[in-house]
Design brief:
118 residues; alpha/beta; globular
């Protein structure tokens, strides 16, 4: 059975792009448009990895993390344009190890990135 990745972003075009790419690589993708919808999806699905936008309406990524991390240890990658040091520290505190990717500086291709087996 394919591993399941939850993609959480308030921009539908971003969710669609990521979903198409990951599906092509053989992953099962579930998506949500905000933190509240992500909590509902995570409650229904067996999630192996979460790609989480930080800046969203309703329940933002940091608020989602505060709730979700109380009961789950699933790996989470934060997708954000926020560069302030305080945001990085908060992300580390809530999600675990920080991987910073400046998408404005690099272009990722299938050969550049391989998601680890979870």
């Amino acid at each position: 059975m394919a591993q399941t990745i939850l993609v959480v972003d308030d921009h539908a075009n971003v969710r669609t792009l990521i979903k198409e790419y990951l599906t092509e690589l053989g992953y099962r993708v579930v998506s949500a448009g905000d933190g509240a919808a992500a909590l509902a999806a995570a409650g229904r699905e067996s999630i192996d990895l979460i790609l989480l936008d930080v800046m969203m309406p309703n329940l933002d990524g940091f608020a989602f993390l505060k709730i979700y991390r109380k009961e789950h240890g699933v790996p989470i990658i934060l997708l954000t344009a926020r560069l302030a040091e305080s945001d990085k520290v908060l992300g580390l505190e809530l999600s675990g190890p920080l991987v910073e990717v400046g998408l404005h500086r690099v272009q990722l291709t299938q050969n550049d990135v391989a998601l680890p087996e979870l």
